[in-house]
Design a protein that fits this description.
Structural class: alpha/beta
Strand order of the largest sheet: 1-2-3-4-5
Number of strands: 5
Oligomer: single chain
Helix content: 40-55%
Distance between the termini: 61 Å
Largest sheet: 5 strands, parallel
Order of helices and strands: EHEHEHEHEHHHHHH
Radius of gyration: 19 Å
């Protein structure tokens, strides 16, 4: 069972974690949008999840906004807090083209859990590409025991043919990572930008400046309308 909360709201998951453990499940906690708070706070929030019964805690880079140094700092803080009591992990997104690099540095820092998808399948710019991750780990001397050729074959023959919109780093998904906003904002930003005749990138940057999180998608309409109003010439 994976139970996710915003990176500063782990306390709302304690009952869910406890119930899942009571039901005999292996339970991991996910701290979403970890770029929005400090490594020390991430460690404190992870401790709440571990104390509630989580056997692992992942930083879930929902916006694809973390850099390698930021990943290392968060993993190090988590492991100082609960190392030996639970596992630490990472769920990386590709918005800044750092998903594989961020996953590798997390593993080098001591993470023993890493999410990855064949062909990088995932929302927006996609998730950490599994076959690329395995190749890099093998190259730097971290054996995985995974058959790279088979991963590549399945990715090319099965996964890519069913992708209606292959994940890619383009102007909006890159801006999503740059602005630090959730992937769920992308389609809403595009629609709002088209409706009000503004640039979706400007919308994403503004909602990022406002520290918006998933569930606040309606804010994109307000932001787009405000940007459009600023662009209209003053009457007179």
């Amino acid at each position: 069972m994976r139970i996710a909360t915003h990176c500063t709201e782990a306390d709302i998951a304690t009952q869910h974690i406890g119930l899942s453990r009571d039901l005999g499940m292996d339970v991991h906690g996910d701290l979403m949008m970890p770029h929005m708070t400090s490594p020390e706070t991430i460690a404190e929030q992870a401790r709440i999840m571990v104390d509630a019964g989580a056997t692992g805690v992942h930083i879930m880079d929902s916006a694809g906004a973390l850099t390698m140094d930021e990943v290392k700092a968060r993993l190090a803080a988590m492991l100082r807090e609960f190392g030996g009591e639970a596992e630490a992990g990472i769920h990386a997104h590709q918005n800044l083209s750092l998903a594989v690099a961020n996953t590798v540095v997390a593993i080098q820092e001591g993470a023993t859990l890493a999410d990855a998808c064949l062909a990088g399948a995932g929302a927006g710019a996609g998730n950490c590409q599994m076959e690329a991750l395995v190749a890099v780990l093998e190259r730097i001397g971290i054996p995985t025991g995974i058959d790279l050729w088979k991963l590549e074959d399945v990715a090319d023959a099965i996964v890519r043919p069913i992708m209606r919109a292959p994940p890619t780093v383009d102007r909006t998904t890159l801006t999503q990572g740059f602005a630090g906003v959730p992937g769920s904002f992308l389609h809403h930003a595009a629609r709002a930008a088209e409706r009000f005749g503004v640039d979706a990138r400007d919308v994403l940057v503004e909602v990022g400046r406002r520290k918006s999180v998933a569930g606040q998608e309606d804010l994109l309409i307000e932001v787009a309308a405000g940007l459009a109003a600023k662009q209209r010439p003053a009457a007179g």
